[in-house]
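Continuing the series of single-chain predictions for the mutant panel. This is the parent chain; the variants come on the following pages.
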Amino acid sequence: MLGRTAPLPLLALSFLVVPVVGCGGGGSSGGGGSAAAAATAGSPAAIADVTSVRLPGASVLSGDVPVIFSVADPAGALATVAVTYSVDGGGSWHTATPAANSPGLSDLATGPAPGVEHTFIWATASDIPSLAGALVRVARVGAPGQTSSQAVIDNAPLNASVRLNRRPYLQLTQQTSTIICWRTEADTDSVVEWGPTPLLGQAAGNPGSRAKSHAVEIVGLQPGTTYYYRVSSSGQPVTARGTFTTAPASNVSDFTFLAFGDSGTASPEQLALGRRMATEQVDFAIHTGDVIYPYGALANPVGEYNERFFRPYEDFLDRLPIFPVIGNHDLIALLGQPFKDVFHLPDNGSSIAKELYFSFEWGDAKFIALETTGLFLVPVGDHATWLQREIQNNTKKWLIVYMHIPLYSCGSHGDSAVLKHVLGPQFENGKVDLVIAGHDHNYERTRPIKDFNRDPAYPGLVHIITGGGGAGLRGVNPNSRTATAVRAHHYVKFRVQGDTIHGEAIDLGGQVIDAFSVQNIP
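Parent structure:
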């Protein structure tokens, strides 16, 4: 099911974003407000008070939390302080409960400003059993003290009655929306808590639903913005917080993405590549097809997708949206029905060929994904009209096409004569900047190919084959069109930057087996 954003009540989150109040207000990542700044430079510090207070710099705190503060007294007199907290932006203050191992707050050593540092261990679970934004103030009796920056305290326990079958993964992320999907072992409600800060504060989905497969759409977002989220059920969190970042503004030509394909075997090589890709800091990923071998999860759609797709990539699917194109092995399973059930892909306006081809935009780039096993071998029909319109009406600087079966390949499958003549003229004359494909289990980059465009100024079109995602490798037989070809498990990292795309093919050991750049075709 797909639930849209709805205003659901949460656990007293009226304080969502509160201003820092108090005298000073040091950052939670270090430092603090300093009353010592009032002392004249070069003169003895005439101050008897707490000079700074800070909390750990983590985005979310829980359990026993150290509160680090400094106390100054020009005479070195012993000091007694109190530690209080507020969850309503400083409107009311409460005594913080000390942890069993916390040092006392009486007869503390002092010295000239900035003073002597001490630590109080706050048992936050005793005072904030769920979720709140908190300020902490440390002060001597009769003095103003110092107040920390706001910290997010979250002691809400995970809902132990809900077991995940599939961890959250992002789909169809756009400038103002995204879809968060997950799967549970038993039927549960479908709710996602989310917000621009770790406090979350908003909810989307349907608390009255009952399903195992969940898809919740979050709308009303801002372009190029990072948000926090977590799955919840029956008012309790089910997962830890994750983050997602929306697609950037339409004029942005600086972003990164991964491309890989022919992966779904659960081989050691696929798992190793998955771990390496999880270390990459990129914006999204595309998959060039054959997500699940050998029959597209025909026998066991849930189990095979979990084993051969979700578990290998679970360390990045919860923060990076992925846009896969269907491969020939994926089509074997009921014309790709398990593929369609798992992924939420852009609408192409076709009820028959839904999700078999589509386009999406990211910044100043358009990506077009094509099913080249059968559909786009045929030069006429609704799909052909759609492609012609997508190319002709493109207004983006960059136009990138990806597919499973390639037009050109020096791998074991070789070229596709039909695809070359059906798609080649459209790509070259339509100013496509780059073509990415899979199918052959190797890496290949062609030289710029110019078979159909007769313009002397046309530089030619580069084709990339990335089919080394985990399935068994095959040989290569380079020809005059080949710039480089390597029999290796790998993925490709792209950076779109201004008028240039920089690419690196990276193997299992993290070595760059090819580095290249592609210039925009004006």
